Amino acid sequence: MKRRTVTVIVNSHAGSGRKKRFLQDVLGALRTGQAQVTVQETVAPGHATQLARGVDGSDLVVIAGGDGTVNEVLNGLPDGFAGELAVIPIGTANVFARELGLPGSAKQLAGLFLNGPSRDFYVGQVNGRKFACMAGIGFDAQTVTNLNPATKRRFGKLAYIVAALRVLMSGDWREITVERDDGPPSRAVHLVFCKSGFYGGAFQAHQRSSIFARNLGVVSIDTARRWALIRFVLASLLGRSPAVDLAEKTVLVTAPASLPVQLDGDCLETTPCAVSICDMPLRIVHNG
User: Fold this and answer.
1) Confidence label for 139 from pLDDT (cuts 50, 70 and 90)
2) Which of 66, 84, 134, 176 is 20 to 30 A from 123 (CA-CA)?
3) Residues contacting 82, CB < 8 A, separation 6+
4) Which CATH number fits domain 129-278: 2.130.10.10, 3.90.1150.10, 2.60.200.40, 3.40.50.720?
5) Nearest to residue 272, comparing CAs of 281, 280, 262, 260?
6) CATH entry 1.10.1040.10 includes domain 5-116
7) Average pLDDT over every residue of 175-195
8) From residue 41, how far is each of 10, 47, 77, 145 by CA, in Å?
């Protein structure tokens, strides 16, 4: 069935000139396809969450932005939301969109949104706040904490690399305690819960993770030695992620002091925290 009413939530700060032109091309193609398109632009961080609270009644809600915008919309959708979601990837890393196999042509993408298939996907949650791609504690959360938003907008992925190198050289990592139902407590200094197999863009952190699976990939580094973290980064770059676990039940994470937790690229929670899969799936348009 053709989707006729489309609400597009746009992160007004996302994307370069080229990406913004691509967004306008997709919107034009949707209108050419006889869709009733409503565009709502954000005016501040967190505004996409507010906009998402009013999307009931649309056949399709399109998120135009990066992973942070996807996160905001997921946390604003009304309870029992029965519509479908789609993504126009105009952010920095666009990890979530990589799972969807989206075409690069604006016309083809609009056609997919109006007539293409959709399927269930599952999101994680930390202390009740949803995440689409990953939740990290330790190295990557500290990297995000040290990242200047203005620098991120100007330099994109390069800003993450510089911030990560600074954290790596500092070596100031705290021990984390991880408690699961299916085993004894364990210790770590770096912990990532993956809903996506991708990490920070095209890098692979967990080959068995998928937004379509009802579980979480768990990547853990239990030593504070810099080489262990460097080895993990190199393996991700080469698509050879290390041995990891899958979790289907709630995981509890504690630390001697409150540590930041990054969700989809922004630090939005702190330890102690409970990490789990949301029970009810959502629907996303994808390219088969």
Assistant:
1) confident
2) 176
3) none
4) 2.60.200.40
5) 260
6) no
7) 87
8) 5, 9, 16, 26
